[in-house]
Amino acid sequence: MQSNGIIFILSAPSGTGKTTICKLLTQKLPDLKFSTSHTTREPRNGEVEGTDYHFISNKEFEEKIERGEFLEWAKVFKNYYGTAFESVDRHHLNGDDVLIELDVQGAQSLRDIHYKAVFIFMMPPSLEALEGRLNNRGTESASKIQERLKISEKEIQLSPLYDYILTNVDAEQTTDHFLSIITAEHFRKERYKPSSPDLDNLINNEAHT
Ligand code: 5GP
Q1: Which residue from 22, 21, 162, 10 is spatially nearest to 83, judged by alpha carbons?
Q2: What is the pLDDT at residue 3?
Q3: Using a 6 Å cutoff on CB, does residue 102 contact ligand 1?
Q4: Which of 5, 30, 45, 104 has the most CB atoms in a 10 Å sphere around its CB?
Q5: Ligand 1 within 6 A of 105 CB?
Q6: In whole angstroms, what is the distance from residue 107 CA to residue 109 CA?
Q7: Nearest CA-CA partner of 181 in 10, 15, 2
Q8: Residue 187, SS3?
Q9: 10 lines ligand 1 (CB under 6 A)
């Protein structure tokens, strides 16, 4: 089935403010659907099953891998994370835009299979700011924070592989920039559908002369 919806992939180092941006996007663009990932990590305070993630055991995750249920999956910080085909298809087949949050490995596996999507990387204003945000979040120990920062540096090195890079200095402004990307992507010439047969004829004839 052909879908008019666009798939947006968002990667960002831990602590860049991705969760806040996703919340603001939901408010400003209620039609944008989110793919809910599966993970084997423990829920953090306030996280809701089925909304933030589907929290499952290692055994359940490995069974899903065996059954080929994942579009992609990766091990991040010693836990499994994966996007089930079903989590994307249920929205995309309705013609909706879908946002998938992925780490850089997941994004790379989708690029490897030439998955049709728009790849967006969200950058912190600086490494210092990132460390500050991770400290303020207070959910990880000092050693875990250092481990996350090392991984963030590697992730940032891969940002040139993405189609767009947003620097998150101010959440409201970053959300507006994200919305601009979504709008612009809908107006790419490849997605233009002539609104009348005469326009369609002109364009098709032009393409063949
Ligand atoms: P967190 O534990 O902070 O929620 O997420 C850790 C990392 O896992 C983040 O970089 C996040 O983007 C990534 N992640 C979340 N869901 C998925 C997924 O479905 N697949 C992959 N490959 N990474 C994911």
Answers
A1: 10
A2: 62
A3: yes
A4: 104
A5: yes
A6: 5
A7: 10
A8: coil
A9: no
At 128, list the tokens: 């210092």
**Do residues 31 and 49 touch, judged by C-beta distance below 8 A?**
no
107-165 pLDDT tens trace: 999 999 999 999 999 999 999 999 998 888 777 788 888 988 999 999 999 999 999 99
For the chain, report the end-to-end CA distance as a whole number of angstroms: 31
Q: What pLDDT digit, counting tens, does each position of 161-188 carry?
A: 999 999 999 999 999 999 999 999 999 9
Expressed in angstroms and rounded, the spacing between residue 173 Cα and the centre of ligand 1 is 23
Question: Closest ligand 1 atom to the C-alpha of 52?
Answer: 4
CA nearest neighbour of 56 among 72, 43, 68: 43
| CB of 134 shorter than 6 A to ligand 1 | no
At 97, is the secondary structure helix, strand, or coil? Answer: coil
Regarding the beta carbon of 151 and ligand 1, being less than 6 Å apart is answered no
* 109 CA distance to ligand 1 middle (Å): 14
103 CA to middle of ligand 1, Å?
A: 5
Q: Tokens for 61, please give them.
A: 């995750």
Nearest Cα residue to 97 out of 10, 158, 204, 200: 10
pLDDT at position 116, please? 96
The count of other CB atoms within 10 Å of the CB of residue 8 is 23
| Residue 158 CB less than 6 A away from ligand 1 | no
CA 79 to chain centroid, in Å, comes to 18
Helix axes 171-186, 18-28, angle to 10 degrees: 60
Q: Which two tokens stand for residue 50?
A: 């089925």
